[in-house]
Write a structure and sequence with these properties.
Layout lengths: L13 H19 L11 E6 L5 H12 L3 E6 L11 H8 L5 E5 L3 H9 L5 E3 L7 H15 L6 E5 L4 H13 L2 E5 L8 H7 L4 E4 L2 H5 L4 E4 L11 H7 L7 H6 L5 E3 L12 H4 L6 H21 L4
Parallel strand pairs: 1-2, 1-3, 3-4, 5-6, 5-8, 6-7, 8-9
The chain binds phosphoric acid mono(formamide)ester and norvaline.
Length: about 300
């Protein structure tokens, strides 16, 4: 079987994503019923972190353990990766000692170079450009609460960052719409916009307009990891891109609110919204565990059950 990586959302087909969601449902149910599900026993996941993480590390590490395997954590500070070892060499060596690799890093090109030299599947655990595992969990969460996402509208309020890019890729693949509203100067890059296909997304200058009729409203930090030097400038530019009760009232009556977390109440979302009845952020965080277990199992063993 050729190696399958998950470096961008579109690395999987719509059919494969449907399978993963069905499988994640089974895995979640079994886990909650205390039924063992050791489909990756004796297998090892290596997790490489060049940026901080709570949810991603925890969900991959706990998930691999629950699948009967082991997870090893490497970071730049205390491995040779931080001392200039070539990404290509790291890919060759690390992939000879494990069955699966997850990487959180800066440029997308780093995970691609690693994957090109890897004997085992590589998963993108967040790059500057994409966060595909998070969007898998988000769409799974939407389906659990509201049914199929096809034909629905997602309002993205804030920065055209890694999360936004991944929503746009997913919209094209799974046939739903994204309304993006960013402050001037922070719009989706034109090259990227072409890649996403104009049929599935629209840009709005006014965040209230972007929320109109949306079935899901979602926002993220104004300053992503790696861009901290722009923090002050961004705080000023994004001040009107805070999801509040008024924006939620403009969305569909049963609209959900999501945030990949960590969140800053009073910046990209008010406490009233994120802690309110439309918010599903805790389910969203938990579902990282279940969908990533389905993903790891699929990349290593293919379709099962
Ligand atoms: N949402 C997310 O990826 O969280 P962490 O940065 O804590 O992994
Ligand atoms: N856009 C954020 C997501 C964090 C999970 C970042 O890249 O920092």
């Amino acid at each position: 079987m050729p190696i399958k990586h998950f470096l961008q959302f579109k690395d999987l087909t719509a059919e494969e994503i449907d399978y993963l969601f069905e499988r994640a449902q089974v895995i979640k149910r079994r886990f909650k019923a205390y039924e063992p599900h050791h489909t990756l026993s004796d297998r090892t996941l290596v997790m490489i972190f060049e940026k901080a993480s709570t949810r991603t590390r925890l969900s991959f590490e706990a998930g691999m353990h629950q699948l009967g395997g082991a997870a090893i954590y490497l970071n730049t500070r205390d491995s040779q990766l931080g001392r200039g070892e070539e990404v290509e060499d790291a890919g060759q060596v690390i992939s000879r000692m494990c069955d699966l690799v997850m990487i959180r890093t800066f440029e997308q090109s780093i995970v691609e170079r690693f994957a090109a030299n890897s004997r085992v599947p590589v998963i993108n655990g967040l790059t500057n450009e994409y966060h595909p595992c998070q969007i898998l969990a988000d769409i799974f969460t939407f389906i659990e609460h509201r049914g199929p996402i096809q034909g629905r509208t997602v309002a993205w309020i804030g920065d055209s960052n890694n999360m936004c890019n991944t929503w746009l890729q997913a919209a094209r693949l799974l046939d739903f719409n994204v309304h993006v509203s960013t402050p001037p100067g922070y719009e989706v890059e034109p090259d990227r916009a072409n890649d996403f296909g104009q049929d599935h997304f629209e840009q709005f200058a006014d965040p209230m307009e972007a929320c109109k009729g949306a079935h899901l409203v979602t926002s993220d930090v104004w300053t992503s990891m790696g861009f901290e030097a722009e923090n002050e400038e961004r705080r000023k530019a994004f001040a009107d891109w805070c999801v509040d009760a008024e924006m939620m009232a403009n969305a569909a009556p049963d609209a959900l609110y999501m945030h990949c977390l960590p969140a800053h109440r009073g910046e990209e979302v008010t406490a009233e919204v994120i802690d309110g009845p439309q918010s599903v952020v805790w389910d969203e965080a938990e579902n990282r565990l279940h969908v990533q277990k389905a993903l790891m199992e699929y990349l290593v063993r293919g379709r099962m059950g």
